[in-house]
Amino acid sequence: MTDKTSRRNFLASSFAAGAAVTVARGAQAATPDPLITQVQPWAQGFGEGVDATPYGLPIRFEDDVIRRNVEWLTADTISSVNFTPIHALDGTITPQGCAFERHHSGAIELKKEDYRLMINGLVDTPLVFTYADLERFPRENHVYFCECAANTGMEWAGAQLNGAQFTHGMIHNMEYTGVPLRTLLEEAGLNTAGDLKDKWIFVEGADASSNGRSIPMEKALDDCLIAFKANGEALRKEHGYPVRLVVPGWEGNMWIKWIRRIEVTDTPVESREETSKYTDTMEDGSSRKWTWAMDAKSVVTSPSPQAPITHGSGPLVISGLAWSGRGAITRVEVSKDGGMTWETARLAKPGEKMALTRFYLDTDWDGSEMMLQSRAMDDTGYIQPTKAQLREVRGLNSIYHNNCIQTWLVRSNGEAENVEVS
Amino acid sequence: MSKYLKSTAMLAALALAAAPAAAEKLGLGRTALPEEIAAWNLDVHPDGSGLPVGSGDAIDGEEIFAQQCAVCHGDFAEGIGNWPKLAGGKDTLDREDPLKTVGSYWPYLSTAFDYIRRSMPYGNAGTLTDDEVYAIVAYILYSNDLVEDDFVLSNESFLEVEMPNADGFFVDDRAETEYSQWSSGEPCMENCKDEEVEVTMRAMVLDVTPQEETDDIVPATEAKAEAVEEVAEEEEAVREEVVEAEFDAALAADGEKVFRKCKACHQVGDGAKNRVGPMLNGIIGHPAGAVDGFKYSNALQDAADGGLVWSEEELAAFLAKPKDYLNGTKMSFAGLRKEEDQAAVIEYLKSFEQ
User: Which residues in chain A (7-46) have CB-CB distances under 8 A to chain B?
Assistant: First the structure.
């Protein structure tokens, strides 16, 4: 039966079933469905008028599709994180309203009128821009994922949190509109900086944490964006309104929110966020620093612990997300037996560089227990590793950059659990 | 890096074709004034560049630390609850659960100065003088046994301090240690493991995932929401009676500002929960030690058993100098010296009934 589950076979078999009438159809209805035979209130009267909600929220039936926080993780919600409900979303674009938040001193309110962006340091002319100035530079649109380096970090030592939202939800994917950072640096002039190869920029936010980070000049001139719109509308307060830095493919901590200053420097500042945090301690006690790129990773979002199978055996859509900070996803495989055998999943669209890719495995579930895994490959040829492979190199004390293959144990009743497997 | 530069150059060339050409300056923005740059450019680099002129020692630092930092980081920089521990952890980096502190982990002392000057104290950032920052940093070093208590940390002595983990870091080597191993062509598709796969660990055994009623059917949650609303309405009515006594809104507004000092540990208002300290809704006029689910110090528990009620007078006395008022209290807050601050914060707390 197992070979029945490839997509081609599934499509072929469902086509055959359709042609051969109702053999595979679900239960026959015993009595007519009143939702069909009786006139329902929504079909009789009116719905709401056009201005009932000038800015709409999801309908109340979806009110469980929200960001959630794990309280024991941090001392205080002001300096904390919550998680995108990826188990309940589909496609690739994350709505801003449920995209994870990470603050170091809370989400501040900063008006466009009060916004200033300074460029100083080794530039020809130190400059100050207003928000209005930024809107007069030529701008670009790009879709990028933003993943916290600590995403899946709680899972290093073992399976901990029971839900894709909590294990993999420190990620969102939006279409940004903004001005290339390169444009602004060139406006200030880089002749003073001399050879750009060994230069850096230091970027900081307007909030109390300032969250300063050093970024090599090469990256700054390559693809960083000074963004002021996401998914077509203004950034949300919690994502850095009115202006944030976008650092494609690199850890979310570098995507400075409420960005207020860009300084061109000779050397990295070695700020709190790039020494005491966001460094990776190995088994021998030494630590990697400057681990900026987010490696290829994937997760099955459904079924998963918060999104169990409720329909019994038969046609089942296994779905998930894959991404790489070093390129585009080229291929995703799904295993139902804990990594013994793999099937190639269908990418909803060809992978795009440093953006989320949605994958599907359209399958026929026989109702038996599954150890569901997904494995991503990117266009550098990198194959997402197992947790054992990561531990072999890094030991158990690491926190950040856990891009291991995730396992969900799906039981025959459809419920799923976060597990580790041999 | 050179490979990187090459691709950057290629991208730049591509960008000329695909994106709006922006090679020429647009003349937007204005020149930043030296005063403006000085106000925002606070970076301190590992070589000490950017340090302001100033000094402080651990003896002064201890007092300032007690006032400004100990509420979260503990009197000895040992950290309270989930708040960062700043001292200790020597020789733990290669053990299970290493303790990463300024002393055991931070490679550069400049990082501590830079961060404390910009962003501390939590909730009141940028209010310390440069000398206070030097003194606090000296105290943190002292707490880590890295300097004597009379060591004067200054812009001149700064580089004398040796950080134990200065050589403990290396630049990202994933390209060599990981990418080369895990980019091995065609991935395995069949018989990828030697033995039958077994579950070795389950999240549900740990049971640390936040629980909720997401599976509830809609009518149930609606009923629950209604019930909550009803309770809220009843509370509203009660609140009006109680608070109407004499409530000084202007004073309460001042109190909200004072309360910033308390916020790191105490919550008030809708959904307030116990944190490092108990939630404070309805605290005025209520028996001490009675917030559900909070583990009080023995000292406070004894006082509560003795019938202590948080009247305005008692609370003011406690807030003035917590440790004098109640020897053994867990509240490691130095106190509100000014009577007007005590009165203001009490007025503010009055606006949050149970």
Answer: none
Could you tell me which chain A residue has the CA closest to the CA of B11? A222
* B296 has pLDDT over 90: no
pLDDT digits (tens, 9 = 90+) for B235-248: 333 333 333 446 78
* pTM for the whole structure: 0.79
Q: What span, in angstroms and rounded, lies between the C-alpha atoms of B287 and B307?
A: 7
Q: Which two tokens stand for residue A327?
A: 């390129």
Closest CA to A419 of A369, A383, A384: A369
Taking contacts as CB-CB distances below 8 angstroms, the residues of chain A near B29 are 127-130, 133, 187
**CB within 8 Å of A409: residues ≥ 6 apart:** A369, A370, A371, A372, A416, A417, A418, A419, B199, B202
Q: What ipTM is given for this predicted complex?
A: 0.90
CATH number, position A412: 2.60.40.650
Residue A55 lies inside a defined structural domain of this protein: no
Closest to B349 (Cα-Cα) out of B258, B277, B287: B258
The tokens of B266 are what? 């105490």
> Is the Cβ of A74 closer than 8 Å to some Cβ of chain B?
yes
The one-letter amino acid code at A262 reads I
Please report whether residue A187 resides in a domain: yes
Nearest chain B CA: its distance from A229 CA (Å): 18
Of B28, B45, B172, nearest to A290 by CB-CB distance is: B172
Residues A170 and A226 in one domain: yes
Chain A, chain B: beta-carbon pairs less than 8 Å apart: 289
Calpha distance B211→B187 (Å, rounded): 38
Chain B residues within 8 A of A251 when measuring between CB atoms: none
Residue A183 maps to which CATH number? 3.90.420.10
For residue range A201-214, list pLDDT tens digits in order.
Answer: 999 999 999 999 99
A283 touches chain B (CB under 8 A): yes
Using the Cβ of A399 and the Cβ atoms of chain B, whether some distance falls under 8 Å is answered with: no
Of A262, A286, A310, the position where a domain reaches its end is A286
Q: With CB atoms and an 8 Å threshold, state whether B111 touches A166.
A: no
Q: Is A132 in CB contact (< 8 Å) with chain B?
A: no
Residues A155 and A302 in one domain: no
Would residue A59 count as lying in a domain?
A: no
Q: CB-based contact (8 Å) between B9 and chain A?
A: no
Based on the fold, state whether residues A233 and A313 are members of the same structural domain: no
A231 belongs to a structural domain: yes
Same domain? For A324 and A393 the reply is yes
Residues A355 and A334 placed together within one structural domain of the fold: yes
Q: Are residues A281 and A305 in the same domain?
A: no
Which residue range forms the structural domain that includes residue A323?
Answer: 297-419
Q: How many domains does chain A have?
A: 2
List of residues 6+ apart from B33 with CB closer than 8 A: none
Same domain, A267 and A324: no
- Chain B positions touching A189 (Cβ under 8 A) are 25
